[in-house]
Amino acid sequence: MVQIEWIEKYLTEAEQMMYNNQVKEGLELLDSLLYDEPGYGSLHNHIGWAYLYYTSDTNRAELHLTMAIRFEELFAPPYLHLGVLYIRLGRYKDAITFLERGLSKHQPNRVALLQHIAQAYELLGEWGQAIKAYKAAMLASVVEHEIDSLTANIKRCRKKRVMLFLSGNKERSYKSV
User: Fold this and answer.
1) What is the pTM for the complete model shown?
2) Which CATH number fits domain 1-108: 3.40.50.1460, 3.40.50.300, 2.60.40.420, 1.25.40.10?
């Protein structure tokens, strides 16, 4: 991915604004950059990220994250953020699709992508697949608290699987449990 240094400086500034609860100002800065570089994938990723995590405007988040992918297909972060968005919207299969695509992109955050894949499978009631993805995330991590959290997630999935088995229920989604 080719980086435009002067825009990256402003992206960092806008991120800091978001962290400092200056959401409106940060979004205004990001939006103003669109006039200079409307086809810059990292800019669209930042705008989508901001709308996803700091507003309730999921439509704009989705728009900008998909634009980020369109303009910079090999850039991994928008795949992660789009996956998170689809999990929030209950579109678990779409989430898995984008999260899995993100794994093959340039410098992906493997632990986060795999963890969210596991969450989507868990929310679908596919606990075996969820456990498999949580284990893969564990193998990709060297951070003790991440591994502890992933271990707890695996235990939770195993409990759900046992609960389903003991209930005799054949349905594998939360709607029927």
Assistant:
1) 0.91
2) 1.25.40.10
